[in-house]
Amino acid sequence: MWGECTRAQTPIDFAVGAGVFLLTLAFVIAFIPTVFDPFTAAETASPVVSNRVAAGVAGDLLASSPAEPGVLSPACTAAFFEAGEGNATLADAADCPDGIENDTAAQFDLDEEVLVVIHALNESEPIGNASTVPIETRHVTRNVTLRRGPDDTDELSDGDASVSQRAVSIDDDQYRLTVWVW
Amino acid sequence: MSVTDDRAQAHTLEAFAAAILLVAGLTFALQATAVTPLSASTSNQHIENQQRAVASDLLATSAENGDLEAAILRWNPDNGTFAESPPEVDGAGYTRADGPHGFDPALGGFGEALNRTFIDRQIAVNVDLRHYNTTDRIERRTTALIDMGEPSNNAVSATRTVALADDANLTAPDHGESTLASLSDGEFYATETGTGSDPLFAYVEVRIVVWRM
């Protein structure tokens, strides 16, 4: 009479067992890609690239002296940012470093887009709020908007950019220089 | 027949054993990957590099426009503290940057630059001044200009040396007429290291330590 009927709950047991196992397997398989996330190369430029551009711009291209990185030469700053694409005549007159009027990305051998903005130290939305500074050059005082780079910054809002910053001063006023590379 | 078929719930137990093996394997793999963005640190090397660069540049630009020297000369020789530093502070310097103006009124342009660069972004700052305390340059002393507490493990620092001249005026209110040379020994935190007619009073090394609050 005991016969085959003595096994208890076998179908339920099997269902629960298989369920637990499959759930765990699914979790593990879903989790594995995140383990490798830190090691997959990001689509954006490496942070080192924007840092190199920031150091080059604040320390070499615009600095009044290599011994004082961050203290910018007003004339070279105007030459760099003028009209958003550099001003060769002004750069020559002020004896600025070679290549200041070149495209920023080309100057640093980059294929990416580069945006350079000088803005107030505490500006939290720097992209659209570049400082406009009156800069005296030999002939005339001009208002220069301290922003250089592509006008279309839609891709930046996706967050896939490498960002670096420096503190700089122009005519004794302090600003923050931010570089985006994407 | 009836003996071998008396099993119950064995599948569930097996499944739990298998699940534990899988999860243990995953945990082991996680431990094997050394430092990831998910590790304990909230900050990473790039952010620290940026903070160091900004701190270093801030010292350079503040030294260039004179704010830095004005801040470290804001010494009140009567009570041996920095002028207008909070009285409840144990020590000479400023501790906090609260209120709408932060360091501004007490520290002038340098304080304002610190506020706008760091405090507004929830970054804490310590500023220490290192100098010789004796003429024969044996002993180094540290005077705190700003002390916001104990830096975290992710703190970075930057330094800059400022030369103070004999005829530099204090910038504390009511003491603007005193030059460093006119103060008697011990009235200023640093001791004169220049000798005789040497116009140098002392070198002061300004060290700024920043970390995320």
Describe this structure in words.
The complex is a heterodimer of chains A (182) and B (213). Chain A is rod-shaped. Chain A folds into two domains: 10-36; 47-181, no CATH class. Helix content of chain A is 33%, strand content 21%. Chain A has a five-stranded mixed sheet. Chain A has a two-stranded antiparallel sheet with strand order 3-4. Chain A has helices spanning 10-36, 47-61, 74-81, 88-93, 104-107, and strands at residues 71-72, 114-119, 132-136, 141-145, 147-148, 162-170, 173-181. With 182 residues, chain A is α+β, with helices and mostly antiparallel strands. Chain A is built from five helices and seven strands. Chain B has 213 residues and is an alpha+beta fold. Chain B has one domain (45-212). Helix content of chain B is 30%, strand content 21%. Chain B has four helices and six strands. Chain B has helices spanning 10-32, 45-65, 67-72, 104-117; strands spanning 75-76, 81-82, 123-132, 140-147, 156-165, 200-212. Chain B has a four-stranded antiparallel sheet with strand order 4-3-6-5. A two-stranded antiparallel ribbon of chain B has the order 1-2. In chain B, strand 3 (123-132) and strand 4 form a beta hairpin. Chain B is elongated. The termini of chain B are far apart. Chains A and B meet through helix 1, helix 2, strand 6 and strand 7 of A and helix 1, helix 2 and helix 4 of B.
